[in-house]
Specification:
Blueprint (H helix, E strand, L loop, with lengths): L1 H9 L4 E8 L2 E2 L6 H4 L11 H10 L3 E7 L4 H6 L27 H17 L3 E5 L23 H16 L5 E7 L15 H5 L4 E5 L19 H18 L10 E3 L10 H13 L6 E3 L21 E3 L4 E3 L8
Parallel strand pairs: 1-3, 3-4, 4-5, 5-6, 7-8
Antiparallel strand pairs: 1-2, 9-10
Helix pairs in contact: 5-6, 8-9
Length: 330
């Protein structure tokens, strides 16, 4: 953490995303009994309040990442909240993990209470992750969802985020959500329930994971998307902006996850990070988030600027031109 703070102090980085709750339970000691009972056994962040005070002193935004529907601990503690098989037994994914049922209102309240406590501890923004249903692989049993009623998957995800936003806005923080990169370009809902228009309306910011390595060959007309980081990120975000504009949504409502890791060829280094950042700016946004699965960012530090200055361009389908605005760099 000292190293991350030093990076933020000396570069344009102005926020850190911290896991408050992941698929193995809470990462902090909750004071709310309804939250604490789902704590799990993965351990807690030491001296969390002191850490948040330190980040605030360094003018670093602390973002609370909360994994929502891939939650094996909550599924174990609350078996009535789980996705089922047709025989009534718990459904398990390819890793053997149980998932909680995204249609269950009690589960919604629990995750929002986690977010509310995180904000009261000092986090300045909430980022919900695994806002989706598990993949319905043909090799796995069919998923059965108690409490589904008449809602579709995409309606259930949107309803949860709408409720979360209504409660969190009273605490003065934004509600954001991580989604698959494909959601920006696929017109309908993915099998996991994510659909752009449903989610964009009920969040302050969407964070599509537009990692070039995750797009199949031929995506955007590119033989090897992983070798074209600028083209992939720009095409994905340009489509997201167009869809937001049709909804009447403007401003920094999209903040993509960028690839700071290597998966296949080529090796990703500073030049690939710069290309992705430029694609963000040319699509009309300032904000982005870097991700490396081991949190190893030293190899790409030279791609970071010393201060956060707005570089985004005014995006139109036909042209781009310079425009000044307030930076939101993560």
């Amino acid at each position: 953490m000292r190293q991350f703070i030093a990076i933020a102090d000396s570069t344009e980085i102005n926020a850190l995303v911290i896991d408050v709750k992941d698929e193995f339970g809470l990462n902090f000691a909750a004071s709310d009994p309804a939250v604490a009972k789902n704590a799990g056994r993965a351990g807690v962040i030491p001296r969390l309040t002191a850490l948040l005070d330190t980040l605030r002193a360094h003018r670093i935004l602390a973002v609370a990442r909360i994994v929502v529907f891939k939650d094996s601990v909550t599924a174990r503690v609350n078996p009535e909240w789980t996705i089922r098989r047709e025989d009534g037994s718990p459904w398990r994914d390819k890793e053997g993990l149980t998932w909680v049922n995204p249609f269950h209102a009690g589960l919604w309240d629990y995750n929002i209470r986690v977010a509310e406590e995180a904000v009261r501890l000092g986090f300045g923004e909430v980022q919900f992750d695994y806002i989706r249903f598990p993949e319905p692989y043909r090799t796995l049993p069919r998923q059965v969802f108690p409490s589904q009623a008449a809602m579709t998957k995409e309606q259930a995800l949107a309803a949860f985020l709408r409720l979360a936003r209504e409660r969190l806005v009273t605490l003065g923080v934004r509600t954001t959500a991580d989604i698959f990169g494909l959601v920006t370009t696929v017109p309908g809902a993915l099998e996991v329930g994510q659909q752009w228009e449903h989610l964009a309306r009920v969040t302050d910011v969407l964070l599509p994971m537009v990692y070039p390595s995750h797009y199949p060959r031929g995506a955007f007309g590119l033989p090897r998307p992983n070798a074209e980081p600028y083209k992939v990120v720009h095409a994905a975000l340009a489509r997201a902006r167009e869809r937001d504009l049709k909804l009447g949504l403007t401003g920094e409502r999209v903040r993509p996850w960028l690839q700071a890791f290597t998966l296949g060829r080529p090796t990703y280094g500073p030049s690939e990070i710069r290309a992705q950042k430029q694609a963000v700016y040319d699509a009309g946004y300032d904000g982005w988030v870097l991700w490396n699965p081991g949190s190893k960012y030293e190899p790409v530090l030279s791609a970071l600027e010393k201060t956060a200055i707005s570089h985004k361009r005014a995006f139109t389908p036909d042209s781009v031109r310079g425009q000044k605005s307030s930076p939101r760099r993560h």
